[in-house]
From TrEMBL:
InterPro entries: Lipid-A_deacylase-rel (IPR018550). It comes from the Bacteria. Pfam families: PagL. This is Lipid A 3-O-deacylase-related protein.
């Protein structure tokens, strides 16, 4: 599942590090919206008004040296349930996801945030060529659950808040099985929050950043990647994907990092592409150069980038590829990778990876 288990790690890690400076809250929210038919083949699906409910438990992080860089973000877990816009064909979706909300303002009375969340979801109806052939978006009962949105929260009293939100919620299996157009649901939400332990805001010493020349202090990593990919026709064979990425990473500012990678990819599904062309294990190897932007959150970082194939003999998906996901850097050098690789808006496969950073060192030091 794309962007799932590693994202759950973030709230778990932070929840385990209790501090008297952090405020715990829970909220309930009702949402209403519509199913966005992002492909012409989905035009027949949007029939029912979307109705959803959410229960969230989270805290506002004030106690970390990095939290002030992000105006003290909210980190937590949400339980989710809704119909999917067509009860007869798509059924219902349920799940849970970890999330981070980044405040845009420093006000303690009214807080406007942007939200990103990822987790696991279960749907009740999937594609079946005999009993449910019109369900072209979903072929797996278990899917990734993604939420992106903005939210305003008004604390009418120190412990009581009202919420208004706009978001997109997405179910998809990351192209591990076809068909997989996924569902995109657009919501407006109203909710209530209660602060269980409202702590007085305190100033935490900010991190100091060591500026060094561009060509110095890059972290060097090697990441092994394993995945699988199913191709059309529906119900076809699943093919393994093997890859190795040599990566350079550097953090330039508190919220800005960059990575450069050389990717070597063996995608076994290429053997099924134009089968009349003879192929070997050596000939299907793809080599790509990649550049990515990172948003660091302590040792956890979000990844967004684009690459180009330097070697791709069969040019199955075009010359460019893209990545969106996350990485987690352990203090002992281990690096965990969970990234969706795509060709523009078309999902290719999910990169499940484990690697090692040979010269890992934190760029921040306490005053």
């Amino acid at each position: 599942m794309k962007l799932v288990m590693l994202f759950f790690l973030l709230p778990i890690v932070l929840f385990g590090q209790e501090s008297k400076k952090d405020s715990w809250e829970f909220s309930v929210k009702g949402k209403s919206g519509f199913l966005a038919a992002h492909r012409g083949t989905m035009g027949h699906l949007a029939k029912d008004r979307l109705l959803a409910g959410e229960f969230s438990f989270y805290k506002r992080v004030r106690s970390k040296s990095w939290s002030s860089d992000y105006r003290n973000p909210y980190v937590g877990i949400t339980l989710y349930g809704s119909n999917l816009g067509n009860r007869d064909i798509l059924g219902y979706g349920f799940g849970g996801y970890g999330f981070v909300e980044f405040p845009w303002t420093r006000s303690e009375k009214f807080v406007l945030t942007s939200k990103v969340g990822a987790g696991l979801g279960i749907i009740t109806k999937v594609y079946n060529k005999d009993s449910n052939p019109k369900n072209v978006p979903m072929s797996s009962y278990v899917n990734a659950l993604i939420c992106l949105g903005v939210q305003g929260k008004w604390y009418v009293k120190p412990n009581h808040g009202l919420m208004l939100s706009l978001d997109m919620t997405h179910f998809s299996n990351g192209a591990s099985k076809v068909p997989n157009l996924g569902v995109n649901m657009m919501f407006v939400g109203l909710g209530y929050s209660y602060t269980v332990a409202n702590k007085e805001p305190k100033v935490v010493d900010a991190r100091t950043f060591q500026h060094v020349p561009f060509f110095k202090s890059w972290n060097v990593s090697l990441v092994g990647i394993l995945s699988e990919k199913q191709i059309f026709p529906t119900g076809g064979k699943r093919y393994p994907v093997f890859a190795l990425s040599g990566m350079l990473y550097k953090q330039f500012k508190p919220k800005v990092g960059m990575e450069i990678a050389l990717d070597v990819i063996s995608k076994q599904s290429i053997f099924n592409y134009r089968e009349y062309i003879p192929k070997t294990q050596g000939s299907i190897i793809q080599v790509g150069a990649y550049l990515g932007y990172n948003v660091p959150l302590d040792r956890f970082r979000f990844v967004l980038g684009m690459g180009a194939y330097l070697r791709d003999r069969y040019d199955q998906d075009g010359r460019f590829y893209h990545r969106v996901g996350m990485r987690y850097q352990c203090e002992n050098g281990l690096l965990f990778n969970l990234v969706l690789k795509s060709n523009w808006a078309k999902a290719d496969y999910v990169e499940y990876g484990v690697g090692y950073t040979f010269n890992y060192k934190a760029r921040y030091h306490a005053k």
